[in-house]
Design brief:
single chain; mainly beta; 4-stranded antiparallel beta sheet; 11 strands
C-alpha cells in the first residue's frame, strides 16, 4: 500500500507562484514514476506533469509547459510541483499520483495510487 499526502495549495493572485509537495510512504519511492494531475470545477481530471524514477525524464501538459516544474527528492520520498505565472484557469484540485512503473507517463491508467488532493485557487 502507498500513502500520498499533498500540501502547499492555497489562494494566490494571477501571476503568483505556489509550490506543491507530495510526501510518499509505504513502498520504495525511488523506483517509481510520479505525476501530478488536476481537476477543475465541472471538468475531467487532466494530466499536468510527470517525472521518471530518476528524475531525468519529465513530461508536461502544453497548458503548463514553461510555467510549471516537476521535481523529486528520493532521499525525502517527496515530489514537488513548482507553479509560476499562475493563471485563473489553473484553479483546480491538484492530485499527486504514483505510477505502476519507473518511467514517466502521461497516462492516467498507469497510475496505481492517488493522494487526496490539494486545492489551488488563482484569483484574477
Amino acid at each position: 500500500q502507498v500513502q500520498l499526502v499533498e500540501a502547499g495549495g492555497g489562494l494566490v493572485q494571477a501571476g503568483g507562484s505556489l509550490r506543491l509537495s507530495c510526501a510518499a510512504s509505504g513502498r520504495t519511492f525511488s523506483s517509481y514514476g510520479m505525476g501530478w494531475f488536476r481537476r477543475a470545477p465541472g471538468k475531467e481530471r487532466e494530466f499536468v506533469a510527470a517525472i521518471s524514477w530518476s528524475g531525468i525524464i519529465t513530461y508536461y501538459a502544453d497548458s503548463v509547459k514553461g510555467r510549471f516544474t516537476i521535481s523529486r527528492d528520493n532521499a525525502k520520498n517527496t515530489v514537488y510541483l513548482q507553479m509560476n505565472s499562475l493563471k485563473p484557469e489553473d484553479t483546480a484540485v491538484y492530485y499527486c499520483a504514483a505510477a505502476k512503473y519507473g518511467r514517466a507517463t502521461m497516462q492516467e491508467y498507469e497510475y496505481g495510487y492517488w493522494g487526496q488532493g490539494t486545492q489551488v485557487t488563482v484569483s484574477s
